[in-house]
Amino acid sequence: MTDTDQATGGQPSEVVRICRDLLRIDTSNYGDNSGPGERKAAEYVAGVLDGMGLTPQIIESAPGRASVVTRMAGADQSRPALLLHGHLDVVPAQADDWQVPPFAGEERDGCLWGRGAVDMKDMDAMILAAVSGMVRDGRRPPRDLVLCFPADEEAGGDYGARHLVEHHRDLFDGVSEAISEVGGFSVELGGRRAYLLQTAEKGIRWLRLVAHGRAGHGSQINTDNAVTRLAAAVARIGAHPWPIEITETVRQFLAGVEELTGKPLPPDDPDALVAALGSTALFVGATLRNTANPTVLDAGYKHNVIPGTATALVDCRFLPGRADELMATLRELAGEGIDVETVQDAVALEVPFQGSLVDAMVAAVQAEDPGCAVLPYCLSAGTDNKAFHDLGITGYGFAPLRLPPDLNFAGMFHGVDERVPVDALEFGVRVLDRLIATS
Could you tell me the domains of the chain? Predict the structure, then answer.
């Protein structure tokens, strides 16, 4: 029997049960539509929502690629609605690399283990448990809530959030703001707990480089070799020292860290960042500049044949307002004889760390953790808030988790042994409940 079972008379709490059940459903997204899809998880979520008396819709964009959307009526329906969203898919996991099977949903050492435990079936479970508690208590939110659980976030959202935005935008009528993943988690700064509220995220530009040359026999001299040309371009891009550029969100974040630690935090000193932020530096370090990382190379088909073309994929992330700068630099680095094609393009986001919803998020977390600080930060990756931005919806990252300071939370995103503390899940439900009731 686990500690959670003992504390609840032999039964796990609602949020733990829902999260465990979701972790046991394999929704691996391989990016090529070959995985199991999200249908089984969508049916599970729809069943939970149906049990609350809500009316969920399961929407398939392709066979097995399923999202769930429902609306909960608020007390004042003249107010703009609030969107709570969390994706159902996860990145693949190699079971041999894990201490526990990645889809076992096992509880060990006070944590739930499994692919999706932090990205982001934990937030899915917290949303469902918080709303379930409101329904059970007979409480209505102050304004309409739209609950959305999309497919395909891990591959850009074409089968999930983007499909919903393009083909079912009426489901989001009246929504003005949204809350989703990769924010609201705690870190230790200067001996004080601080929660990072995501108010910005870098843009995404996935590129394909296509090098052209003269095909020929591998034994011949060839000064127009596509592989050589591509390799040189990839090396230049991968080694390029992108300049540090401090956006408003990052400036506020660094100022907050300096205030909490009492020490200056030079943004051009990676060692200082690591010393102050620990594993969270993985998130923050990449928000100080544009980045471009070559990830895939593809050329040729036989040892003694020089191919006429060679391709590479590059994962580029750009700061708000820096997309044109990124592309101009990349075209220059690629050089002549190489086409630069855009495969995926998603906007960078940045919103002010102020307003009634921000105030409600700060108040909710401080009510559950008195004396803590709340800082804005920029996410180096992307979320489905990009897709909902096209509907004029202002998105924040706020999946509140009070974490032990020695847990490498940032390193578990797409990593091995992904896990979330049980008491952090229960903390998150309490915070979300307060937030929904006061926003």
Answer: 3-181+383-438 (3.40.630.10), 205-243+292-345 (3.30.70.360)
